[in-house]
Amino acid sequence: MTGQKFPRLVEAFDESVDVIVVGYGFAGAVSAIAAHDAGAKVLLLEKMADPGGISVCAGGGLRLSRDRDAAFSYLKATNDGTTPDDVIGAFVDGMFEVEDFVAELVKVNNAEIVRVERPGNYPFPGYDSMYFLEIDKVPGFDRETGYPHARSLRNGTNMMKVLEDNVTARGIEVRFSTAAERLITGPDGEVHGLWVEGVNGPRAICAKRGVILACGGFEANQAMQRQYWQLNPVYSAAFRGNTGDGIRMATDVGAGLWHMWHFHGSYGFRHSDPNFPFAIRMKRLPDWVPEVRETEAVMSWILLDRRGRRFMNEYEPYVQDTGHRALDVMDPSTVQKPNIPCFAVVDEEGRKMYPLGGVVFNDRDVTPYEWSADNLKEVQNGILTKCDTVEDLAETIGCDVAELEESLHRWDKACAAGQDEALGRPPKTMAPIKTPPYYVGEIWPVVSNTQGGPVHDTKQRVLNAYGEPIPRLYEAGEVGSIWGHLYLSGANLSECFIGGRIAGREVASLEDWYLMR
Ligand SMILES: Cc1cc2nc3c(=O)[nH]c(=O)nc-3n(C[C@H](O)[C@H](O)[C@H](O)COP(=O)(O)OP(=O)(O)OC[C@H]3O[C@@H](n4cnc5c(N)ncnc54)[C@H](O)[C@@H]3O)c2cc1C
Fold it and tell me: Which of 215, 266, 481 to mutate to test the pocket of ligand 1 (most atoms within 8 A of CB)?
């Protein structure tokens, strides 16, 4: 790919629209709807053959709040100085517009909205002002099979269906299998359009009002991850389309970056079939049964490092957000990563409790895999290994038997005492591991979604390295997420809605640069 194939400056365009939106996940769909409703002719580009991005795989809950000040305090604490107050403030203001917006959207197909009460994950002031807004049912649409190319955590498919029906009802042009490659600017750096590569080869498309990047993060770009993260390897949980293209395009025209170190992730298995490209995240009982209170559900497993020792509280407040962080250790004296891979161990009682893994994906080339209820299919296919004795278990892990025996003994003693003094796991979540056979699986870091990317301001304008807006370049969603430290579950999706609406409205309000020449 050379600059000559996609030159920054062009003499003539192949076609023109008012607004180009790159990426057809939630952020792209909302941006396109908002720009269209503000009077712009919109072209929505998607590089994959199907819509949905990572968004369609998600739980589908938009995180909202009942109290502005409480939400602001909570989000300021969870961002720990990584995002300016005015940007957090714009997000919080947007939270209070989302319900009305979604109520308008569902008129297209009579989908049912539910509110799910759920406090924030971390104990900062304001955590109890939060709830989720979800789409519970879409008449005539089956959330499990409605998108054959995708499996979602819960209601992500329902929300996608509502958005897709709105895009279609408005007659917004969508071009699939068409990748945005490079931005086109005027001589002064103002963004005038972009190059795409699709079935008809490269085309230069003029965006008379501007471009919105909504093309996700870099979950599927391990080379980029190596440059920004110590932790490696990290496997994507769901989707191959997000390869950091928006970050590349924006930095090419001068964008500054933020939050590149931060990703929403966890720990999980790799499939024994190398053709299955995604990691499979470990799931706790509350992940399967939302009604179960987080700190009161038994977790069937412990994690052991390569020496056979426990090294983390397996049951952090929000395992799906920070579960990978304790794996991020490099021991300079041995130049090894003792926790990668690490090992999940359950006993016979734990195996029977509930499925250990949950599969989600958006990929038409993947053969769907269903994790078995009793975890026995995974013993047969080699994701888990059955060990009749502690000696077998030590051999499978590759650790010293005495070390492993000591770890199991300490754990069972802590369970009997109801207190994990060593690592602080919540008492009600603890279950002894003492009934053979044992089952063990290799555990790896997993990225659900990245948070880093181009910096933006309250209007979703992409800022350059000096904090100045790059003219006519906007972004929405996780491509340049505002979450820079800890993440509020559901807030990536509300960010798609809030940022997408702002970006769509703002870009549509601009004068046509072509007429202004
Ligand atoms: C299993 C799982 C569960 C999750 N659950 C939740 C949840 O419940 N709540 C929550 O808030 N967050 C959740 N997240 C995170 C959340 O889903 C994402 O952060 C969010 O959906 C990102 O939306 P987006 O529109 O920015 O990106 P995406 O939905 O990923 O869309 C980006 C689109 O851009 C396309 N694209 C990429 N490059 C190009 C290009 N060059 N040209 C054209 N198109 C391009 C991609 O193919 C993709 O379709 C979850 C993530 C995972 C993996």
Answer: 215
